[in-house]
Description:
Elements: H1 2-17, E1 44-54, E2 64-76, E3 79-90, E4 110-121, E5 131-141, H2 143-149, E6 154-165, E7 169-180, E8 183-195, E9 204-212, E10 217-226, E11 231-240, E12 247-256
Antiparallel strand pairs: 1-2, 1-12, 2-3, 3-4, 4-5, 5-6, 6-7, 7-8, 8-9, 9-10, 10-11, 11-12
Amino acid sequence: MKVMKFVLxxxxxxxxxxxxxxxxHHAMEYIELESYTTSPQGGKLFHLHYDYFVQxxxxxxxxxxxxxPGIGYGIVDRLMIDVHTHFAKFGAAHDVTGNSAYxxxxxxxxxxxxxxxxxxxxxxxxxxxxxxxxxxxxxCPMLRSKVLLDGGSVLVGKLVxxxxxxxxxxxCANVICGVDGGDLVxxxxxxxxxxxxxxxxxxxxxxxxxxDKDGAMKIIPGIYFPINENAIMKVGIxxxxxxxxxxxxxxxxxxxx
Length: 257
């Protein structure tokens, strides 16, 4: 409840203090899929994500949540850097130390990891039928994550394939490859979104399907609510198969300044 109150407070502040510049509707437009658009040179994008994971519907000790604040900055017109951190709370089942003090509720919330990513828009639609972007991301676990969760460093490369249709309608695909600790990461995703009304700048709906090399798969329907010209709110619920999380709920806020 405290986390949700914090999210609502931040949402209120965004509405009150928003400026007059035009919000980039396609900037990070999906809930989990990486999108093609980057911030323009000198442009800044604040994002805040709250995710609640239910890994096993019969075992609440495997639940956990993450609060992820971050900021993107346009280095040049087609190159953006993004920096974010994960503040998380894990159930007792995630604790690899077997500490009896955590046997019921798990360890207190802590900063799990710090991450930095670079995204470059490789092509423009004038050159190809689709737009291509590349992302390289490095995530470094904090000491407490290493001790309690056996967390390791993550280094991945991501290919983004995107195509716009009309005004604010889009389809997108991701291919992700890298290493997580000593494990190979190979993931994919595809999705689409479109406005819900005749107003192309109004609320939109989307769906994402994501999977990995181990057979995990999840479907994420989402709704995207423009708050004003600078801010947008995204809400979605992911439903996974037997190799994935059972459920995941997501609330995100994006604010350009």
